[in-house]
Prior knowledge:
Elements: E1 2-6, H1 10-23, E2 28-32, H2 35-44, E3 50-53, H3 64-72, E4 77-82, H4 87-95, E5 100-103, H5 108-119, H6 140-145, H7 149-159, H8 164-171, H9 175-189, H10 194-206
Parallel strand pairs: 1-2, 1-3, 3-4, 4-5
Amino acid sequence: xxxxxxxxxxxxxxxLMGTLKAQFDNMCVLEAxxxxxxxxxxxxxxxxxxxxxxxxxxxxxxxxxxxSIRRNYPELGIIIVSGxxxxxxxxxxxxxxxxxxxxxxxxxxxxxxxxxxxLDGKLWTPDGEFNVNQKEEGSAADKIASLTPKxxxxxxxxxxxxxxxxxxxxxxxxxxxxxSHASTIFLKLGVRNRTQAVILLNQLxxxxxxx
Length: 211
């Protein structure tokens, strides 16, 4: 597992890094202290699973960087870790694509629980308002039905645990084309990553829906 901590306070980064390495086996933790450094690391490390992003990191422009990262890396989970913990800021972060929001005042056990939830494809906020697998906007069946045949095939391959490279080979597509299809699938289903997309698919199967 590879996590990127983007925060300009060295002591906080070191404390968080120590906590993560103590709680997770085989954890690789990267660090960024500014937006340019964050962007450079993301561009050169394609296997990052999660970003822990401070809203006040130098170079940040409000929520613009969050929106930009979500657009450029749709399969990447982002948790905002911030000194701000007012409800308005939390809700804005979630609506702009964050998978979680952890105030810096959060206890270590709760922080680890939040990170685990996001890694499991869930959302997490301290008030619990967003702690669901997806937004209830339109039925799950309608969302799945909106996919093209090729997109639906790719979703099923996600459910089989195939990597983008394997899917590209099997379907005779380029890996970048598969990534583009994945981004569109996530938007249509109202989810943020392939884990949430598969959860939605499995929920339909569990109630007897067939696609």
